[in-house]
Write a structure and sequence with these properties.
Four copies of one chain form a homotetramer. A four-stranded antiparallel sheet of chain A has the order 2-3-1-4, covered by helices on one side. The longest helix of chain A has 17 residues. Chain A is globular. Chain A contains three helices and four strands, in the order βαββαβα. Chain A has about 100 residues and is α+β, with helices and mostly antiparallel strands. Chains A and D meet through strand 1, helix 1, strand 2, strand 4 and helix 3 of A and strand 1, helix 1, strand 2, strand 4 and helix 3 of D.
Chain lengths: ~100, ~100, ~100, ~100
């Protein structure tokens, strides 16, 4: 089961800056061989369910190891059985409609 | 790693009513032996990371088997290393403050 | 336009405990005359769009006034034009299905 | 109060394709003069709270007018009083850390 997943991690108890924890997650995704897309409010990754969710678990482990005692995470994820669709497809289908003047 | 997870599944391509899919997820949680709390905008479950996330995967499988070709899911989840906290603790700590007049 | 909205506020830069900020939001909802339901991973409120979203804005203002320099919030919200549905209806429709043995 | 908001709208009762509704929201943001960033799992916009949340309301109105009887939306939003930060700043601060080898 292929999943596209959007991850936003918020470590608590470590001040207001979260960028180094987000950067650490990028390394986790890269090490897991997952394609990822960093955007202003999270990171979108895609792949097999177990690989993707395994990487999310690893992010929590790494952020705790970095010293954050609490993490609050928001995830959006989608699966579909009707057809395959990549992260890039999702953006392109919207951009195509806009280019056609809707 | 204990996780408290809030799950909101939205099946697409099967009309506007989602209640039977949400009900099927309650059965998944019960079968997995996970304590769960159904609320107006999702279900909160708690337990070991792998058990909880395994149940979420099973929900997606079950909803697809029920005929939904696409599922859009929103998850909030929290882990902490400083202390143990249950779903009930989270509600109680807020209610205690309100009872004290804040 | 009636909206059912699920709110989860996470103040940053004020340590790991968020309960007093969540409690302050309950007071905001009560003062706004909005019915609300506190659950383990947020608070669900319902009402007219402008009243509900106005209360969410007020929550951010109050939490900043309490000293939190940064707030990360997750919201799920739903509107529908086909029929009216309350927070209680949403839970009941799932519970009815479960009581019928699905 | 400046807000950075990530919006993901899911119309129900109109089949599995959501791209034309997402495209309609891009037009709403443009008409409102808001800078926006389309990514694989939503659109991030930034601006004054009332302008941004007003645009979100307008998106719901437009999607209902396009025929969707029900909309399920997920929003992440952030405000901060300690300093100004744009959508671009958020991405850049993570990329800078990665470029430095963390």
């Amino acid at each position: 089961m292929i999943v596209i997943l959007d991850l936003c991690v918020v470590p608590l108890g470590v001040g207001v800056s979260v960028s180094k924890y987000v950067a650490a997650c990028q390394v986790v995704f890269k090490d897991a061989g997952l394609s990822s897309h960093l955007h202003p409010y999270g990171t979108t990754i895609e792949g097999e369910w177990d690989s993707v969710l395994g990487a999310v678990k690893r992010c929590h482990e790494v952020i705790h190891e970095m010293g954050a005692p609490r993490i609050s995470t928001t995830i959006k994820l989608g699966t579909r059985t009707d057809r395959q669709q990549t992260m890039a497809d999702k953006v392109r289908s919207v951009e195509d409609l806009l280019a056609e003047g809707m």
